[in-house]
Specification:
Helix content is 39%, strand content 10%. The protein has 93 residues and is α+β, with helices and mostly antiparallel strands.
């Protein structure tokens, strides 16, 4: 969205619903390649290294890095091991 508008010289102002729809579209595309990224954090796409702390989604059972940019600032600071990821929270298939 941003790149297309920027290249075309159009204003780069987006409504929240447009951004959320684009995120869902990207997530659905990425899920097509799930077999290649099964061992990767769904939020950032990187594989856990060594003894990195992870959090498990209580619904889909995927593991996420316990970092602010992967699970959010509040969960990063919390002493939890499980949570509900955004994909499950918003029921994105």
């Amino acid at each position: 969205m941003f790149a297309e508008n920027h290249i075309l010289g159009l204003p780069c102002i987006f409504e929240k619903k447009d951004v959320l729809n684009k995120r869902k579209e990207i997530a659905a595309t990425l899920l097509l390649y799930e077999v290649n990224v099964k061992e990767c954090c769904p939020a950032c796409g990187w594989k856990p290294e060594g003894e990195e702390k992870l959090m498990r989604c209580g619904m889909c059972e995927c593991y996420f890095h316990k970092k602010p940019h992967c699970v959010g600032e509040a969960l990063h600071s919390a002493g939890l091991d499980t949570f509900i990821c955004k994909r499950c929270e918003y029921n994105v298939e």
